[in-house]
Structures are given as C-alpha cells and as structure tokens.
C-alpha cells in the first residue's frame, strides 16, 4: 500500500517505503509498519518518539530500534506505541505524564517495555498524552496524563504504570480498539466499541 503525505495542497508519496500494512500519525511524527514486522518513523523527534536512539528529526523514514515482530502500531502526541507478537507493548518518546508506562517520567529515544502489565495485550491506542491497551481477557489498561480523567480510574492523577479500569471488561462486546489510521485511511482518535 503506498503512503501519501499532504504538503500544502497536494499529496506526495513516501517513496522510500514499500509493503506497508499500517500507519499512524502523532502530533508531528509518522509511524509505518511493514509486512516484515519492522517499524519505520519520520518527522519530529524532540522527545525521541522516532525510537532511533537519537533526538534528531528525520525527513525520510528511519527504522525504529525496536526488535522485530511488531504487529500493531499507534501514536500519541509525542510518543509511539508498538505491540509485538508476544503480546508485549513497547513505547518511546515523551514521558512527562508517564505515557511510556515504564515506571518513571523520563523521555526515551529508544523503545522501552511497558512494565507491570501481565497477560497478553491484543490492542493498543494512543491519546495525546496517554496510552491505552486491551488485554486478551477484555480488560482495559491506561497510563499517562489524567488531567481530565481520561484514564478512567476514578482519579485525576497521572500514572506512569498501567492501571486497570475497574469493572470494565470488553471481552463480550469489543472487537477492536482504535487510535490510528485504519486500512481505509480514516484516523480514529477514540475507543470504538463494536458489538460481536
């Protein structure tokens, strides 16, 4: 699937990439997943959201340092989220609000493993400064900014590790969680419930 980006008033194809199966857009960066399960990023890298081990911006796609086997990608405002085939979640970029989920609040320009989350994750999504994951048991886990209660945990405190939304299980009614550009090119920024 070719990728087209809009500059001013017309789309231009990202020619350096092929075999793309998913894309996601952050505030000022873009992430693409290739069919070989590698992740490619470009754009702003102030927080390290490109995951290349530097904070240098890139106007061409560069391969993220996450080990392969990535099956889903998502972006927040200044962070990137990857889901691997083993069900683990890896993040990089801005971490002021704990949106990387690794237990601290330091930005990271290399992907870090989301901590304190047992079980297999099957879906990921990114808000502006928070992150969402759904486990195979249908439970929803959130972390990061919570100024408006977007973590759904009954508080307004930001969290730098995943917290489960209590009494909320989507195993019977959820088929997908969106927070990325879908295969039809539509960007979905919220959780979308689909009855099975």
Global mean pLDDT: 86
Unreliable stretches: 177-181, 187-196
Pairing-aware structural class of the strands and helices? mainly beta
Tell me the Rg in angstroms.
16 Å
Measured between the Cα atoms of the first and last residue, the distance is 28 Å
Biggest sheet, strands in spatial order?
Answer: 3-4-5-6
Envelope shape: globular
Order of helices and strands: EEEEEEEEEEEEEE
Strand content: 35-45%
Largest sheet: 4 strands, antiparallel
Query: How many distinct helices?
Result: 0
The counted number of beta strands is 14
- The level of helicity is under 10%
What is the fold's blueprint, element by element?
Layout: E1 4-7, E2 10-13, E3 20-25, E4 29-34, E5 39-43, E6 58-63, E7 70-75, E8 79-84, E9 89-93, E10 108-113, E11 121-126, E12 130-135, E13 139-144, E14 159-169
Antiparallel strand pairs: 1-2, 3-4, 4-5, 5-6, 7-8, 8-9, 9-10, 11-12, 12-13, 13-14
């Amino acid at each position: 699937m070719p990728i087209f980006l809009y500059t001013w008033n017309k789309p231009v194809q990202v020619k350096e990439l092929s075999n793309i199966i998913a894309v996601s857009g952050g505030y000022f960066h873009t992430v693409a997943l290739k069919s070989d399960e590698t992740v490619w990023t470009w754009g702003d890298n102030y927080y390290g959201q490109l995951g290349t081990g530097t904070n240098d911006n890139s106007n061409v796609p560069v391969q993220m340092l996450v080990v392969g086997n990535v099956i889903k990608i998502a972006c927040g405002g200044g962070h990137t989220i990857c889901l691997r085939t083993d069900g683990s979640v890896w993040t990089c970029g801005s971490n002021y609000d704990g949106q990387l989920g690794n237990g601290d609040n330091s930005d990271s320009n290399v992907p870090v493993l989301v901590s304190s989350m047992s079980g297999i994750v099957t879906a990921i999504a990114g808000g502006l400064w928070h992150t969402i994951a759904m486990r195979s048991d249908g439970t929803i886990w959130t972390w990061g900014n919570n100024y408006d209660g977007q973590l759904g945990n009954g508080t307004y405190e930001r969290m730098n590790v995943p917290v489960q939304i209590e009494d909320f299980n989507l195993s019977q009614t959820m088929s997908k969680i969106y927070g990325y550009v879908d295969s039809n090119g539509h960007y979905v920024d919220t959780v979308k419930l689909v009855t099975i």
